[in-house]
Amino acid sequence: MIKIKLDVKKIEKRHLFQGAKGTYLDLVLVENKDGEDQYGNAGFVAQEVSKEARDNGEKGPILGNYRIIQKRTADKPAPVAKKPAPKDEGLAPDECPF
Fold first, then answer.
1. pLDDT computed for residue 40 by the predictor
2. What is the domain count for the chain?
3. Is 94 helix (H, G, I), strand (E, B) or coil?
4. d(CA 35, CA 73)
5. First-last CA distance in the chain
6. Is residue 44 a part of any domain in this protein?
7. Measured distance CA(66)–CA(26) in Å, rounded
8. Which of 31, 41, 60, 91 is surrounded by the most beta carbons within 10 Å?
9. pLDDT for the residue 96
């Protein structure tokens, strides 16, 4: 799980784009070079700009920071739902079908 905090006042509306189901904002998460900072942030969040804007040397504004709340490990198995215990049918041991 990753927690993100954004300053929405810094979003440049000219880089928003219209999609089939709404208006979209592309974001980029950039990891800190030296790991977590003094506040526990793993990196910063920047607004993505169009390829044309990047080709012209433009960078998107930094909108905020992110921190990793829960790390996923590859060796950690997914939780398995427990099966309910079988009910005692009240059969005598000699009446057991197997």
1. 94
2. 1
3. helix
4. 18
5. 48
6. yes
7. 15
8. 60
9. 52
Question: Residue 55 in 3-state DSSP?
Answer: helix
Site of tokens 């433009």:
58
What distance in Å separates the CA atoms of residue 30 and residue 14, rounded to the nearest whole number?
22
The dihedral built from the CA positions of residue 69, 71, 72 and 76, taken in this order, carries a sign that is negative
Q: What is the mean pLDDT of each run of 10 residues along the chain (98 residues)?
A: 94 93 95 94 94 92 94 65 60 55
Q: Is residue 12 part of a domain?
A: yes
**Cα 47 from Cα 15, distance rounded (Å):** 8
Place of tokens 């979209």: 24
Residue 55, in any domain of the structure: yes
CA distance 47 to 27: 5
Instruction: Quote the domain boundaries for residue 9.
Output: 2-68
Report pLDDT for 70: 81
pTM across the whole model: 0.65
